[in-house]
Amino acid sequence: MGKMTENPRYNVISMRISETEHEYLKEIMVKTNKSVSDIMREAMRGFAKRYGHEEQNRTTS
User: Fold this and answer.
1) With 60 as the cut, is the pLDDT of residue 9 above it?
2) Mapping DSSP to helix (H, G, I), strand (E, B) and coil, where does residue 5 land?
3) CA-to-CA distance for 15 and 9, rounded, in angstroms?
4) How many CA atoms within 13 Å lie on the side-chain side of 20?
5) What range does the domain containing 26 cover?
6) How many domains does the chain have?
């Protein structure tokens, strides 16, 4: 059985990106030492904040 986590994530989202976007994403990964998932979560939180949605009482990793 897999590792048990306190806040499991079961929803998977996939997307297609260009080669240029992929290279840019890899650069961000190297510079920040973050995974694609972590980068996308951070971007999503930035968009949510920009459009007026604040997370409340949520633990993110």
Assistant:
1) yes
2) coil
3) 18
4) 0
5) 19-50
6) 1
The answer to whether residue 29 is domain-embedded is yes
What is the reported pLDDT for 16?
97
* 17-51 per-position pLDDT tens digit: 999 999 999 999 999 999 999 999 999 999 999 99
Candidates 14, 48, 31, 50; CA nearest to 60 is: 48
Q: Is residue 24 part of a domain?
A: yes
Q: Is the pTM of this model over 0.90?
A: no
Do the beta carbons of residue 35 and residue 28 sit within 8 Å? no
Does some domain include residue 13? no
For the chain, report the end-to-end CA distance as a whole number of angstroms. 22
- Give the C-alpha separation, 35 to 41, whole Å: 10
